[in-house]
Amino acid sequence: MIKRVVVTGMGIISPHGAGYSENLKALNEGRDSISEITLFDSSSCRGTTGGEVRGFSFDAHLKRLRASRLDRSSKLLLTAFEEAREAASFSTGGVECPVLLGTTLGGMISGMKYHGAGLKNGFEHISPAPLVDYFAHTHARNLMNEYGLSGESLTFSDACASGAHAIGRAFRMVRSGESVIAVAGGYDTMCEFTFAGFNSLQAVTVSKCRPFDRDRDGLALGEGAAIFIVEEMEHARRRGAVPIVEITGYGSTSDAYHITRPSPDGDGARRAMEGALNDAGIDASKVDYINAHGTGTVYNDLMEARAISAIFKKSTPVSSTKAMIGHLLGGAGAVEAVFTIMAIKGGFLPPNINLRNIDPGIDISITTESDCRAVVGTALSNSFGFGGANASLIFQDLTEVGI
């Protein structure tokens, strides 16, 4: 029997700040949280700006784990989970609950620290401690160990779609009855190694991230995490949890067109969106807002616009929120899913900031105004990654589905 799946808790930390309220305010007003990199020296790079999370520490909240052994990624993740847990009134001790997380970097900062120390002092003379939190699968276990959760942990690492795929898989686990509740989300950090890599690809902007703009010249990288408590509706009701929205659709494809460049015709992206619509059992005309992947790179934006145009009416509002916070890689799909839900619950369209002149080859309706009021009952969030990994998620307000 197919179960109905709801979100009962969300937690977020992004360049906009820590917590739902701060991110909601920044999203609504169209705040630009991209600035000069401070976590490392970026002066030799093509682009020198990004979306950093400033002024946070989870160390004081730790009860079981040692802060000195944790990578920045684990701390971002735990910060987001704590908010989600509280919002869902989720008592974790001794609970069996799958944890599904998406990331592209894992604990890359710790790995770099270990490698740098080894090159400088000789690997036989340094502590292997940084390696404890280097491997991506350890972060899910950290979360489970800190909060006393047991059960399966799954780590998804399929580029920029990682976080969205983790949420989609959790949705399907709960809908099928495989689990009554799951923790899902995505995270990544601002890492010098990755920043240099994207610069070497000439993919980082030297000005402003301008998704869908005629003069766009690249993306801005960011960091952050978002976590969802995904739950079977009746289970949520029995324990007194208040559903926020319903997850109704998830589409996943892999076009494998090129190692970095998406297929120009947007076929994989189109099929992912169609899959999500079919999964939800709704027509494209039902969608009130699309949170685009919208990286600000030449190829991605044109491809995605073509895919959207092939399915949706021209008047469907579309925006990319990456211009505000940067591209969070494995965390992008999860953070942008939170932003999509904010649009539903807040009744507004997130703005696509920095757009001055729309690319003449793009024929979709881009929302640029901040504080743009709208009724958003159904929304779709896109995440498209390197190698042709594509994911689309559909969220619906509870009033839209008869609750």
Main traits of this protein?
single chain, alpha/beta, 3-stranded mixed β-sheet, 403 residues, 12-stranded mixed β-sheet, 17 strands, Peroxisomal Thiolase, Chain A, domain 1
Summarize the structure.
With 403 residues, the chain is α/β, with parallel strands linked by helices.
Can you characterise this structure?
By secondary structure, the protein is an alpha/beta fold. The chain has a single domain, classed as 3-Layer(aba) Sandwich (Peroxisomal Thiolase, Chain A, domain 1), CATH 3.40.47. Helices cover 31% and strands 20% of the residues. It is built from 11 helices and 17 strands. The chain has helices at 20-29, 72-87, 108-121, 137-147, 162-175, 192-200, 233-238, 267-280, 298-309, 322-325, 332-346; strands at residues 5-14, 17-18, 35-36, 49-51, 99-102, 153-156, 181-188, 221-222, 224-232, 245-254, 289-291, 317-319, 348-349, 365-366, 372-373, 378-385, 389-396. The strands form 3 sheets. Strands 1, 2, 5, 6, 7, 9, 10, 11, 12, 14, 16 and 17 form a 12-stranded mixed β-sheet that branches. Strands 3-4-8 form a 3-stranded mixed β-sheet, with no helix packed on it. Strand 11 (289-291), helix 9 and strand 12 (317-319) form a beta-alpha-beta unit. The longest helix has 16 residues, at 72-87. The model has no long low-confidence stretch (mean pLDDT 95).
